Amino acid sequence: MKRTITAIFICLLLTTQAFAGSSRESLQARINAAKQVVDEIMNANDSTIPSNILKQATCVGVIPGLKKGAFVWGGEYGQGIVTCRTGHGWSAPVFIRMAGGSFGLQIGAQSTDLVLVAVNDRGFQDLLKSKFKIGGDAAAAAGPVGRAGSAATDWKMDAELLSYSRNKGLFAGIDLNGVSVTQNREDTDLYFGKPQDAEEVLKGSVGVPQGAVLFVRTVAKAFVKAKAEQK
Asked: Residue 142 pairs with which residues in a beta bridge?
């Protein structure tokens, strides 16, 4: 009974979150949480993202605390940020939403951190779109784990995006087929204090706000380290 009530509550929470407004403080908290997720996945020893994948990554999306719930109807909803590699480092972040749903005999609730890695130019172009569906508009695969490059030999070579989740401290690849990724223009504009073109931000044409500097530096450090390990 307790599990059923929890699942119903999470499903209602998913709906509420989809329409909830943001504040400058909540956006900064989201960026801080994303930085922590990157820190933790890069310190996960043999369960981290392989260096050869990190080396070729074009963009990284982080969705801290994506909520999943099911009571016959299942749903998942989360908000996060994405940064992309540019000719002079990594871009300022753009805010995104992820949402999906399913129907069937299911029950339960959980929260997980997600990391989405674009591994080629097609994946980069996907993240420039205002909205796309994983597995439909964008080819995706559950990402392999393991610090050694040999751990990444089995992932689908035609994938544009690789996805990872963290649940109870453990990182693993995750199948996100059917989940929609949408740019959150309202939150991006609010955080920057004025309207911004998301494509220009991700291409590096807009400076990194002070509050996002540590997040961007953390991502950059991880990928510089991956390059060094691959030499």
From this structure: 163
Q: How far apart are CA 59 and CA 114, in angstroms?
A: 14
21: containing domain: 2-230
Residues 6+ apart with CB under 8 A from 16: none
Task: Tell if the pTM clears 0.85, that is, is over it.
Answer: no
Q: What are the CA-CA distances from residue 151 to residues 50, 104, 167 (Å)?
A: 7, 35, 21
Closest CA to 174 of 165, 187, 182, 186: 165
Instruction: Provide the b/e sequence for 159-170 (b: ≥16 CB within 10 Å).
Output: bbbbbbbbeeee
The 10s digit of each residue's pLDDT in 109-162 is: 456 788 899 988 889 998 888 898 888 888 888 877 776 544 445 555 568 888
* Beta bridge mates, 107: 71
In the chain the beta strands, taken as DSSP E runs, fall at 59-86, 89-90, 94-118, 131-133, 140-142, 161-167, 170-173, 180-183
Whole-number average pLDDT of the chain: 77
Q: How many domains are there within the chain?
A: 1
Alpha-carbon distances of 19 from 13, 124, 181, rounded to whole Å: 10, 27, 16
| Angle between helix 185-192 and 24-42 (nearest 10) | 100
Tokens at residue 84, please? 């992309």
